[in-house]
Amino acid sequence: MDQSSYSTTDSADTTNESPSQNKGGLSSFAVRATSGLIYAGLFIGCLYFGTIPTTIFVSAMSWLCCFEFFRMMRLDGKVANEFIGLTASILFPVASMFGSLWVTMLFAVLVLALGLWYVYSPRTRISDVAVTAFGPLYTGFMMSAIVLLREQVSGPKGALLTIGVCASLWVSDSFAYIVGSRLGKHKMAPKISPKKSWEGFFGGIVGSMIIWGILWATKLYALNLPFAMLCGAVVSILGVFGDLIESRIKRGVGVKDSGNLIPGHGGMLDRSDSLIFGCITAYLLLVAGGVL
Asked: 157 near 168, Cβ under 8 Å?
């Protein structure tokens, strides 16, 4: 999620703007829009064609996000075991295709592998082990919810539901930016993400609720309107927490973006931070509500 999504009207604060936002005007917007459309098109296409393409795409996303996380941690003096961490980040979405037993087994193997690494590598610190474990859990495990969502409902209905969940987070981001840039006056988390405002935060919730209202209106799922609105609000809020968590990580190591993979957006982790917590929240709500 873009860090400027909850912008306040304090124009002097530009600490979270990327170079593409600061110069280039219309051309920068065109680059950002084009790269965003390509990303969304690939994502939606994989969701449409089924669980296996979805799993491949989510595993690739997880690997990239975990790689960027480890790279940031090196700036903080933490040396992760990238082979173990990156392998686990790929395997968590794959394991989710085969059920909770395989995910549990992967957890056990990950802990065992890290324990053995710690025992047989005298220079390894426990902080290195912790960072190596957190990386794939924060990325691959959490984003496995996208695969679970797509797998639970077969065919176009499953694709539409998963696209709708992701779209609710994307639209929440857009509404937050629009409302925040025009009306934002009250800063939400000035020490972590100075340009976010409470006005943008509530605007984002409205945007998410609109998408969940559309999912309810299709009558394809066992959703009632109050529950759909609840899902829209809670998913948006957890998406914001995902954004703030990544912002805190970046601020802690002194970088603006997790990477530069996606022109105008930064790294894959910048693009996926709200999905990390938003999608797993949506999955748990839908299961708890008897929709899945």
From this structure: no
